[in-house]
Amino acid sequence: MTMSGASKIWARLVRALSKKSIEKPTPIQRFAIPLILKGEDAVARAKTGSGKTLAYLLPVLQKLFADSPSKSNLILVPTRELCQQVYLEVTSLIELCRVQLKVVQLRSTMSASELKTYLAGLPDIVVSTPACMQTCLKNGSLQAKALQESLSFLVLDEADLLLSYGYEDDIIALTAYVPKSCQCLLMSATARLQATTPDRMASATTTAALASVHLLGPPTHVDPLDRGFVKFGPLPQPPLPDRFQSEVDEGGCYGEIITHTHSPTRDGDGELCDSEDSILDAELYDSENSILEAVAKKLMDRGLPSENSGSREGRDGRLEDQQVPSFDVIGPPCSPDMSKETEEEALLDDVEEVDSIEEVNKAVVARVTSQDVIEN
Ligand SMILES: Nc1ncnc2c1ncn2[C@@H]1O[C@H](COP(=O)(O)OP(=O)(O)OP(=O)(O)O)[C@@H](O)[C@H]1O
């Protein structure tokens, strides 16, 4: 499908949103939607109630509408209640779009035969807890091969909770079935993470980052002005995260950036270093008995690209053989001699220009078309 075709689908989604009285994207949606539509993996943090659910649901639906044959998408949430909440959000949007998609929510209370029925033919969207997915894989309700062949998006919603509720093992086990072509998104609430104790925070964030390293591969470069999203490029070696950075905008809207860089010499380039960084650094470097090595090993075993051997295969061929830009922001590239302040102003000016979901879409279409990366 061409992007103009995709635009028509967007109109349908925009109409559906308008029926829910949702006219303008929230900041996290402004940043997330274009990047996710471009095929980026993302780690997004923004405070509770900032619209993170739609930030990933809209691109997931958009791609689902455009994909033929249809792909499967997995949304992992920490609790049954959230499972129900996300399920209702998806089904109401789909209903308003007047399209037919199979969406299921899984519960651990379901019998194996119920689970099997729900998962027959692999639904378009599965909302589940990680534990329940593991059960399905173990009892054969879900065929690992089917998942590997069709998974288009893996979303870890409320990743901070997912990873502090003891789901780490389930998530790590699940990553073995995530194809390299799968787009992975981690969404979490900064406020909630900050409200927890330093130890828990370090542990959750580290695990989130590790999961993302495992699932996504770390980014090659990150710009400190990038608000809330990180582009993941080719996987350098060794695949171990060295450092996190965090940045919170004035209104706390975009939350933090998680980055994984591999060269300590990149640190201190005017990027923020706060106490949280130190905690995280300590946690990361002290990886002896952490899951870090296990994840790194799994990553290597999976044969993900090493050094700069190129981007991941298969994602519609869009990233193939491309020079992956070092980072992605909404806005034109800044000239090298532009001061930081001017750069920031340019970025924010550009964001201000995009003030409706339709406009975001137009902007994305323009950007994506100009890069000539989406073919079908
Ligand atoms: N662009 C928007 N305009 C108006 N309302 C919106 C917009 N996006 C989402 N909402 C509404 O805001 C409410 C909160 O959104 P949502 O649950 O996605 O927040 P969240 O960031 O995921 O919060 P949490 O971290 O608690 O899950 C929902 O009722 C949702 O329908």
Descriptive tags:
disordered N terminus; alpha/beta; six-stranded parallel beta sheet; 376 residues; Rossmann fold
What would you say this structure looks like, in words?
It is a single chain. The chain is built from 15 helices and 6 strands. The chain is of the alpha/beta class. Bound molecules: adenosine-5'-triphosphate (ATP). Residues 22, 24-26, 29, 46, 48-54, 189 line the site of adenosine-5'-triphosphate.
CATH architecture: 3-Layer(aba) Sandwich
- Biggest beta-sheet profile: 6 strands, parallel
The stretches of 5 or more residues where confidence is low (pLDDT under 50) are: 1-6, 191-196, 200-206, 212-376
What's the tally of helices? 15
Shape call? globular
**How far apart lie the N and C ends?**
4 Å
Structural class computed from helices and strand pairing:
alpha/beta
Provide the spatial order of strands within the biggest beta sheet: 1-6-5-2-4-3
The CATH class: Alpha Beta
Count of distinct strands: 6
- Element-level helix/strand string: HHEHEHEHEHHEHHEHHHHHH
Strand portion: 5-15%
Query: How many domains make up the 3D coordinates?
Result: 1
Considering DSSP H and I runs of 4 or more, what fraction of the residues is helical?
Answer: 40-55%
Itemize the secondary structure elements and their pairings.
Layout: H1 3-19, H2 27-37, E1 42-45, H3 52-66, E2 72-76, H4 80-97, E3 103-105, H5 112-119, E4 125-128, H6 130-139, H7 144-150, E5 151-156, H8 159-164, H9 168-175, E6 183-188, H10 190-195, H11 198-216, H12 275-285, H13 292-301, H14 340-353, H15 357-371
Parallel strand pairs: 1-6, 2-4, 2-5, 3-4, 5-6
Helix pairs in contact: 1-3, 1-4, 1-15, 2-3, 2-15, 3-4, 6-9, 9-11, 11-12, 11-13
